[in-house]
Each structure stands twice: as C-alpha cells, then as structure tokens.
Amino acid sequence: MSEEFKIVWAEPLTDFCQKVFEKMGIPAKDAFTTAEVLVLADLRGIDSHGVARLRRYYTGLKSGVMVPRPEMKIVHETPISALLDGGAALGQVAGKRGMEIAIEKALKNGAGFVAVRNSNHYGIAGYYSLMALKQDLIGISLTNSDVYVVPTFGREVMLGTNPISVTVPAMGERPFVLDMSTAVATLGKLEVYSRMAKKLPLGWVTDEKGWSCDDPTRVIANIRSKAGGGILPLGGEGEEFGGHKGYGLDVLVDILCGVLSGSGYLNLLYPKTPEGKPLPSLVAHFFGALRVDYFRSVEEFKRDMDDLIRRLKSSAKAEGQQRIYIHGEKEFELEERYRKEGIPLYYKVYEDLKAIGAEVGVTF
Amino acid sequence: MSEEFKIVWAEPLTDFCQKVFEKMGIPAKDAFTTAEVLVLADLRGIDSHGVARLRRYYTGLKSGVMVPRPEMKIVHETPISALLDGGAALGQVAGKRGMEIAIEKALKNGAGFVAVRNSNHYGIAGYYSLMALKQDLIGISLTNSDVYVVPTFGREVMLGTNPISVTVPAMGERPFVLDMSTAVATLGKLEVYSRMAKKLPLGWVTDEKGWSCDDPTRVIANIRSKAGGGILPLGGEGEEFGGHKGYGLDVLVDILCGVLSGSGYLNLLYPKTPEGKPLPSLVAHFFGALRVDYFRSVEEFKRDMDDLIRRLKSSAKAEGQQRIYIHGEKEFELEERYRKEGIPLYYKVYEDLKAIGAEVGVTF
C-alpha cells in the first residue's frame, strides 16, 4: 500500500464517526446508523461516499440545515405505501427509517413502497436495498441528488447522478446487488482524473458550450459555478450510444423520488434565502421491497438465481478477459478483504477526520 | 417519401393483420389486440417491432409453437400480485392480460405486479405500460427476449436486449414514456447499417473474439450462428463508459421476468427437441402498476410532472441543438403524423404482408 494511504479498521472508524455525530447532538442509534452507512461505502470501495464526506455532514449539522433530532413523520400511509417526511434529518437516518417501513409493509402485505421528502444526501444507495436481503425480499433504493448531469442535447446541469440500487437474494451464490449511478461517470471519478492531471475519455462530460471535452478540472469548476456543461448520462453524448436512455433513467429516478414525494426535483434540491443562505435541503428518496413468494416459492426462486449467476459467470470470456462479474461481487470481495486487512484511507481524509475529532473533542 | 416506401393507413393495416390472425384460429378480440400492438409500433416509429414481424407470428402459429386459443391461467395470486401462465399464447395476448391484471389490482389495492411465464415475443414494451396511463397509474412493462447481447467481458450472447418501459402521467404535458432496450443498439439498427453497407460506430458490438468491431453483417451472422460476439449492453464495451451498468439492468430485467415467473432466462428461452425441432417458447414478462394517490394527490403530482417536464425542455441547449426531448415525445409526435399522413411501410414489408394475405385468403 502506497504512502498516500493510512490503514484503518472498520470498527474503530465507525465508532469514531458515531461519537462525532453524538457530539453534534444526534441520538446514539442514529449516530451509529449514519457512521455505518459511511464506513460501508469505504468497505465496498465507494470511497467518494465514505467517511471522506464526514465534514459535509459536520458542516451541515453545524449550520443548522441538517437537524440532529428531526421530527420525522409519516404524512400518508396505506398497507403497501407511505410518504415519510424526513424533517431535514440526515439522509441516512431518514433513509433507514424509510426502508424499514417498506420492509415491514412488504413482510405483511407483499410489497412496500416509501417515498421520503425533506431529507439529505443519504450516502450509498446500496446500504438500504441490502437491508431487504435479510428477509429474502427484492430491495429497491433510489435517490435524487445535487445536479451534475446535463440532459441529452442540453448544456445546463439539471439532474443528479441519481442512483438505482436493486438487490435480489440468491441461495449458494452471493446476492445480485445492482448499485449504479445513472450517469456515465461520477464527480468523484472526475476528481481522481483531475488530481492525476489525466485527460478524461471523450464521452464522459461536456464543456460550457455543451460539447464533448476531456478536461476534468475545467468541467468540475464549471459544474460548481454552473457555467454550463457537466457529466453526461449513461450512454454518453447525444443518442448514438443511447445517452437518451441514461437520461431517461435519471429523470425516472427523480420522478419517483422528488415528484412522488412532493419534495425537490431537478435543480430545486438545495434552496437558499434571497440573501444566499442555505435552507434545509429537499433531497428525496424512494424505497421498495417485494416478496418473492407472492409469485413463486422462495427456494425455487433462489435456486434459479444461483443457476442464472453460474451460467453468466461460466459463459465464454472475451479474449484477454479472465472473469465475468455479477453485480455486487467485486464489492463483496473488497468488503471481506478490507474487514480483514483494514481500509486504506487517503491521508488527506485521515487528517481531516482527526481535525474534526479535535474540533468536537473525540480522539481518533 | 422515397420510392422505397408504400404509405398505408393504421386502420386498414390493423384490420388486415386482425383478419390474418383470425384465419390462423385466433379469437377476434385477441386478433385485434395483437394487430393493434404491431401497428402501434409502426405508428411510434419502432418499425423493427411492427407489422414487419407478422411473418414471424404467422410461422410460429403454423408450426404450433404459438397457440391461437391458449389456456392461460393464474397459477398464484394475492391482492397485489399474480403469476400468469401464458400457455404458449402470442406474447401480445398474454401480455395484455398480464397488464390488465396488474391494473385491476393496483386500482383496488394500490399496486399490482404480474409475472408472466410461457409466453412469446410481445412486441413493443411500451404498449402495456401505456395502458396504465388511462387510470393515472405509473405503469411498468419488462420482457426478456432472444439473446443478442454479451455480458461485460463476455464473448457469448447470453442476454436479450431486454427492454424497460415505465410510464408516468402528467397534466397538460404529454406523459413521460420511457421505452428503452438495455443494449447500446438493437439488431434492427444493425440490419439498417448492414443494408446500407455502413460501418457501425465502435462500441456497439463485438466480434467472435469479444473485441470491438464495426462490421454489421459479420456480427449479425455471428449472433445468428452463435459464433461469438454480439451487441454490447448500454454503456458499451468494458466498464469505462458504464457498460457494466447496462449489463446489470439487462440482467435485472431477466430476473424479474424469467426467474420471478419460473420461466426461461438467459439463453434458455427457445428450447428445442433433441432433434432440433422448436418447442413452445419460455419468454417471460413482468408488469407493474402503482397508484400515485397512495403517496400524494394525483392533481399535485401531475402539476409537478408538468413543471419538471417544462423545466427540462426550457433548460439551455448545447450549442447547435434546438431541442431537449422528454421520453415518449418524439413517438407521440410521429404517431400523430402517421395517423394523419399514413405509415411509410418498406415495400419489402408491404409485399410480404400481401403474400401472407394471399396464403391465408385475406386481401390487403
């Protein structure tokens, strides 16, 4: 492991984050959940959504736009659905509650769908959909997010990288865990290229004019200042490689989250006062859980899932390739390794955590 | 309009197809449904799934692998779900019944999900999801299909172009109608390039070795003979542009259709006898319908849908672009035009329809 990294273990890291959140006035249980979501991202190799984001939550809580003891309430409820108001909670807290409700309803009535409004960034989408697997349910987790993505033929960032996560249980094989942004790349990846002064592959982003561009630093600055251009939807520029499909999936996620919950959508997630002071965010989520045995026996279903997975994995590889992956597989393997060998944290992140710890009085 | 095309009107075309199906022993109502699905594809510009496919169904019915008067039955049922056995019906007949059940259940209990097994190719996915809009429901339609697509890092066609269609009602604006294959391109598009002796964009397909390739004729032949290579998932080759995401969506559709229904999946959709004689197909579908008012008022939801659509459409265009589209918009405009001006059918298709008509005794 290079000198750039500091190895840390999941348990003390979670413990540290939990204590920081508790110092910010968050009840122990919610503080643990939030810490757990962050550390799971690092364990699964999605470090852009891991503890590197602690400062963002710390700042949000300090400024008052995120609420440590929110009044979450169910606004509307049926046997298979709920609309949950997050009350400006941390996204992890509102998200976990939302998915719990979806699971409860699915266990009782076959399906549960929960739209969550007035929430915040909830970390990795997969944390919530993974919760469904313990009960052999199919799990769904979607969220809208800050706008980095331009619509097909557009030049203005109007959409988040709005992820889709769906989990499906298997028997002997690892479960199928799709957890994908609907954009061709993430801002985190652009930042890696920028740090390495590397050019981007053409088809990831566009410049101020809405044209293909390979300069990560310029595009990141443009996204931040809303100068025009941004990340392209999955499928890339225009329609030649199906960019309109990624754009469609991106909009669909925003509809099921932002519109169905009556929260913010498109570029309306982060409102401000006329003086430019941030107001509580209008981020929204959508969770779903579906019982397999409402269609066929869980045993038979999981046996066929194993068969599907094995057939895919053992199918012929492209020349030069050794392996065909199932979704979630790489992340499960990384998680096992990092739990054993520790998580490699960037020194910069490690130092930042220590600084936050010093500010609130928690030793790392 | 070029000499290559013959203009035909939707109504007599539907009528002709219905009569052909009736001659094949299909009851009038089912014959009309099937004809309607085919002609709607032509009206919406998806001519690869239109009346050009009439011969496929004609042949399937003649050979006995498609059944004109199937015994469709509900194998398992709950207030929000059903497993429907298509009994080797035409996919359009089993599909419409499946979506009707999903809609009935959603109207009564908020959500309805129907998995359909032992069916056939059902035409355009959008036909079924569009049915949900009349009742202000969110509609979902998925199907698996014959294998043309290679998994990421694979060289063997293991997946269909498995489409996802989701419809969402709006108020003054046209509804959102996503209807997309999960592959970067369709076989129909490859055939167009092949006919025009045009090279394919790199990133659409791979050759026998699993490497990027621009020769449509060779790839079509390889797909048909299963010689290796095929169409790439949405996102293209490898993981650089998110090909693993399209691959994941493609697998997800197969899970919800083939595995959840206990039908065929991957390359198991078209079984044969040991002598190579085709057996009834194991194509499977998944339909869903969801009530908006189980979350919030339909009026408010549709008003926000209009707002989302208008904000997207009026956002800044990339230089050189005049218009940002919402999903379904192009197809609605084409449908309006073709209903007024007639559908341009390829002469080859027109002549084939006439030939089928002559065989069964129906004048076109």
Gist of the model:
Two copies of one chain form a homodimer. The first copy, chain A, has 364 residues and is of the alpha+beta class.
Q: Major sheet of chain A: size, sense and barrel closure?
A: 7 strands, mixed
Main sheet: strand order of chain A: 2-3-4-10-5-6-7
Low-confidence stretches of chain A: none
Shape of chain A: globular
Helices and strands of chain A, in order, run as EHHHEEHEHEEEHEEHHEHHEH
Share of residues in helices of chain A:
40-55%
CATH superfamily of the largest domain in chain A, please? Malate/L-lactate/L-sulpholactate dehydrogenase, NADPH binding domain
* Residue fraction in strands of chain A: 15-25%
CATH class placement of the largest domain in chain A: Alpha Beta
Total strand segments of chain A? 11
Structural class of chain A: alpha+beta
The termini of chain A sit apart by 21 Å
Radius of gyration of chain A: 20 Å
List keywords for this structure.
364 residues; alpha+beta; homodimer; 40% helix; globular; 2 domains; two-stranded antiparallel ribbon; Ribosomal Protein S8, Chain: A, domain 1; Wheat Germ Agglutinin (Isolectin 2), domain 1
Describe the protein in words:
The structure is a homodimer of 364-residue chains. In chain A, α2 crosses α4 and α6 (187-195) crosses α7. The relative contact order of chain A is 0.16. Chain A has helices at 10-23, 28-43, 54-63, 91-109, 126-131, 187-195, 216-225, 243-261, 298-313, 329-341, 347-360; strands at residues 5-8, 73-78, 81-85, 111-119, 137-143, 164-168, 176-180, 205-206, 212-213, 283-291, 343-346. Helices cover 40% and strands 16% of the residues of chain A. In chain A, the strands form 3 sheets. In chain A, strands 2-3-4-10-5-6-7 form a 7-stranded mixed sheet. The radius of gyration of chain A is 20 Å and the shape is globular. The longest helix of chain A has 19 residues, at 91-109. Chain A has 2 domains: 5-184 and 232-297 and 339-360, Ribosomal Protein S8, Chain: A, domain 1; 185-231, Wheat Germ Agglutinin (Isolectin 2), domain 1, CATH 3.30.60.50. The mean pLDDT of chain A is 96. By secondary structure, the first copy, chain A, is an alpha+beta fold. Chains A and B meet through β4, β6, β7, α8 and α9 of A and β4, β6, β7, α8 and α9 of B.
